[in-house]
Amino acid sequence: MEKKIAVILGDGIGPEVTNQSLKVLNAIAERFEHHFEYTYGLMGADAIDKTGSPLPDETLAICLESDAILFGAIGDPKYDNDPTAKVRPEQGLLKLRKSLGLFANIRPVATFPSLHHLSPLKSDRLEDVDFVVYRELTGGIYFGEKKVDAAYTEASDLCSYNKSEIERISHHAFKATQQRKKHLTLVDKANVLETSRLWRKVVQEVAKQYPDVQVDYLFVDNAAMQLIVNPKQFDVMLTENMFGDILSDEASVITGSLGMLPSASVGATTALFEPIHGSYPQAAGKDIANPVGSILSTAMLLDHLGLFTEASLVRDAVAWTLESKFVTKDIDPINYYFTSTIGDLVSEYVAGRLPNDVNRINIELRKSTLI
Ligand SMILES: NC(=O)c1ccc[n+]([C@@H]2O[C@H](COP(=O)([O-])OP(=O)(O)OC[C@H]3O[C@@H](n4cnc5c(N)ncnc54)[C@H](O)[C@@H]3O)[C@@H](O)[C@H]2O)c1
Ligand SMILES: CC(C)[C@H](C(=O)O)[C@@H](O)C(=O)O
Ligand SMILES: [Mg+2]
């Protein structure tokens, strides 16, 4: 199979984690005789430095011409620490999502039994945790009118949603629920916000078309607590843009680290695949970031291309590395391996050279650890 993949490395740890995913894709191509053609595009602080724009037109064009987009992360302390900067890396990502019409951000949360002992949660709360967050991605407070006065004494961000924006992601979420445990939880703040009351009303109407799905409603503050005390109650969590952003970072803790979680953003045009974390600038260039979120995003990309066997092989490879205790510093600060070592192990497994040859390869790889 021949596929065109747009690659946006971005800032901070973006290039490091994405390069591990590219190794994995190359191993898939080798083993299954596929041809992936990569076209690189700039975005974020890197793009501002090189072109003056956080999303050059050329990047958008590359994405539109591709079958899928693999993205790392954007963001730089230079902008985070300057609230008055008018051109910002994050504008590039938001514009890309909006321009491509990627209204549904899918963030699966599943725990790995071999990491339970490292989680801050009790292990009995972690067993059987397997849910997915459907986060609306192109509306809400992120995209409403923004105002700040010249003297920086007052600012506002408008949160608005319309019926069709809620309907289209709700249909995606309900259809996904039908393929899972048939339990959908809408998370909102309907006791306070008019937009949330619209979400409840529209979701109640959409629900009539999916009578086999059980629908629950949770206020976002309660949902934040329930995620910690009883995460296995969730199957599909549907929510608006900002609540989904915050709750999915919180949910990552259940799996062991923010570096673990993948995502797919789908909608009108080319789908985009990215880990949910940011550019983690403190780790940039140190080869210590966890590449699992990016690699699992690559598995979602392969699923999206219809390459289901390949995607499940990537997931098996990740599970094997974790079970074998090949983990990065965020997971085990004492016995840890480099980002690039994890990428090598996963891609060697995918290529079919592991785990059979594990003794020889283990000895070589252990030399590259910090212990
Ligand atoms: N999609 C994106 O590109 C995206 C997402 C979130 C934040 N950002 C941007 O990233 C920059 C840094 O933001 P932040 O520090 O709030 O969030 P972050 O996600 O970059 O990092 C927060 C913390 O999570 C941990 N972490 C994140 N990714 C990890 C990984 N792969 N491996 C191990 N640990 C990991 C680290 O402890 C880190 O300090 C900001 O400029 C922000 O705007 C971008
Ligand atoms: C960088 C930022 C705009 C982005 C978001 O809030 O959507 C990030 O936090 C994410 O989760 O992808
Ligand atoms: Mg986020």
Briefly summarize what is shown.
Its main location: cytoplasm. This protein is α/β, with parallel strands linked by helices.
Task: Give structural notes.
43% of the residues lie in helices and 17% in strands. With 371 residues, it is an alpha/beta fold. The chain has 2 domains: 1-103 and 261-371, Isopropylmalate Dehydrogenase, CATH 3.40.718; 120-255, Isopropylmalate Dehydrogenase (3-Layer(aba) Sandwich), CATH 3.40.718. The protein is globular. The N and C termini lie far apart (42 Å). Magnesium ion (MG) binds at residues 245, 249, 276.
- How many structural domains? 2
| N-to-C series of helices and strands | EHEHHEHHEHEEEHEHEHEHEEHHHH
Reading side by side through the largest sheet, how are the strands ordered?
2-1-3-12-11-4-5-10-8-9
Instruction: Report the CATH topology name of the largest domain.
Output: Isopropylmalate Dehydrogenase
Helix proportion range: 40-55%
Mean pLDDT: 95
Task: Describe the sheet with the most strands.
Answer: 10 strands, mixed
Basic shape: globular
Q: Give a list of the ligands.
A: nicotinamide-adenine-dinucleotide, 3-isopropylmalic acid, magnesium ion
- How large a portion of the residues is in β-strands, by DSSP E? 15-25%
Number of helices: 14
Query: What would CATH call the class of the largest domain?
Result: Alpha Beta
Proper CATH architecture of the largest domain: 3-Layer(aba) Sandwich
Radius of gyration: 21 Å
Please report the distance between the alpha carbons of the first and last residues.
Answer: 42 Å
Please tally the β strands and state the result: 12
Q: Could you give me the name of the CATH homologous superfamily of the largest domain? A: Isopropylmalate Dehydrogenase
Helices and strands: which structural class? Answer: alpha/beta
- The poorly predicted ranges are none
